[in-house]
Task: structure prediction
Amino acid sequence: MIDELLKATQQSAFANWVQQSVYPYVITLHAIGLATLVGLLLVIDLRVLGFAKALPLPALRRLMTVVWIGFWINAVSGTMLFTIDAKKDFYSTLFRTKLSAIAIGLILGSAIKSKVLNSVSAQAQPEGDTAWPAKAMAVASLACWIGAIISGRLLAYFTYGDVGVE
Amino acid sequence: MSTPALAMAHPVLEWIKYTPIGVFVRDSAWAFPTLQSLHFIGMTMLVGVVGAIDLRVLGVARGLPIHPLHKLLPVAFVGFGINLITGIFFFCHDPYVYAFNMSFRLKMLLIVVAGLNALWFQLGVFIDVDKWGPGIEASRLAKVISALSILIWFGVIMAGRFIAFIPSK
Result:
């Protein structure tokens, strides 16, 4: 059932259009979205870790809005890229690793925004140090995004861990 | 390799192609994907930090003082260093493809333009930067330079992605 759906996706006129007509533009958008999403999260995470402490924590929340713009650029462009190789991607361990890392990275990013940037202590002491759980979340966030980038890049070259793909 | 320029052996490109770096990247199945991963991580460090400064100057997250944001610039320089080194590895891997590729040439040109644009910011408006504390609006000139910065770096990314889709001749 799922295999038929994946196959139909790959053979759809939409997938064909993506592959034949707009592919270089879609991967360009995917790279720009990546730089926006992960690049700005990197700035936020570095501040949480204690770099550039003169940056007030609550003011960083505004950057999260742009982070989400980057995310949606990549959710849309990523879905378009998925249609081309639906079956290969779906069964790829690299692809599943990438999506898992993104999911955890998003949860950590939201938690850092609500629990750290928005916290009572951050409001009281915007230029203060953060507690160790906040720093642990920032490290885990960076690890997730580096993992997402690496698995995404490897996905373009290898089909490592494929299950049942001809 | 059908065009005359590519068919002819070029002494400098030929030497680059057979440097240990070129041989290593061509012979290893893992080298290119690993270098690509590093190149994307370097891009994120560079464009992320520069982009955050540009966004602040443009008025997004105006609550951030600009001076401490500039203290993150070493991260951008490390990212640039990673990408310069991995980029040299890509070039050695197949110098003919890159040297005769218009998208690659445009990318190099845009990186130089981005550097000059950053220099303009440094020399033209950076002297005022200490005055731009939390909530202070940046000057019009600073905003123009920052908007250009974002556009140029997105152009660098686009030109980089298009290298593989434009014939080398």
Observations:
- Chain B is about 75% helix and 0% strand.
- Chain B has one domain: 4-165.
- The interface with chain A takes residues 32-33, 36-37, 40-41, 43-45, 47-49, 51-52, 55, 60-65, 67-69, 71-72, 75, 134, 153-154, 157-158, 160-162, 164-165 of chain B (CB under 8 Å).
- Residues 101 and 167 of chain B are 7 Å apart (CA to CA).
